[in-house]
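Title: [Solved] Class I SAM-dependent methyltransferase 3D structure

Original question kept below for reference.
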Amino acid sequence: MADFNDAKILDSWAKNTAPWIRAVQEKQIESRRLVTDQAIVDVICGFEADSVLDIGCGEGWLARELSAQGMSVTGIDVIPGFIENARTSCKGTFHLLAYEALSVRQLGETFDLAVCNFSLLGDEPVSRLFSVLPELINPGGWFVMQTLHPGLMADSQYYDGWREGSWDGFSDQFCDPAPWYFRTLETWFSLFDTNGLSVRLIKEPRHPATGAATSLIIAGRVTEGTSRKTDRI
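Solution (posted by the thread starter after getting help):
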């Protein structure tokens, strides 16, 4: 798996920006259309959050949904085409920014809630992101993530590591699928706990026809006394 790395993820998304924007805007992805889009919106709306940081915002669909609910949204993404589309189609502020560069100094503000919706795909950038989340979220605020359910990989490969990507079920306009870094449920919980995020909510949205879990949503709250290093960023 020598070719599976964080740089390869970015390379793939840069190549597939246009077809992805089309797929999202035309609601071509069944699991998103039937389950996961509404699931993440419902969870976020269940918290008292006036300001939201959408990390890995893509073309901006979640920012549009949350803005319609009256929230002030800031989005970041490292793919220029996604940020360009978000800026032209959404209310809010959008930054072309890699996870590794994310800081309060870069954004100039903190937020009531941060969200990663199917945007935690890599290895080292994800670990680094968790370490800075408490600095970006206001005291008592929330971090919400939605990802593929680890149980979908409940076989001989149920261990942390790189997995081969696929565009199965997508149009033939997609090419060169991105790899992704799989984490077990235990590893996800550890990332929350070791970075001062107390897990308060777990949801497993299910497909209405099959009953199978389509994703995993975890929400953690910034614990009291968590170190905030904004003055040193």
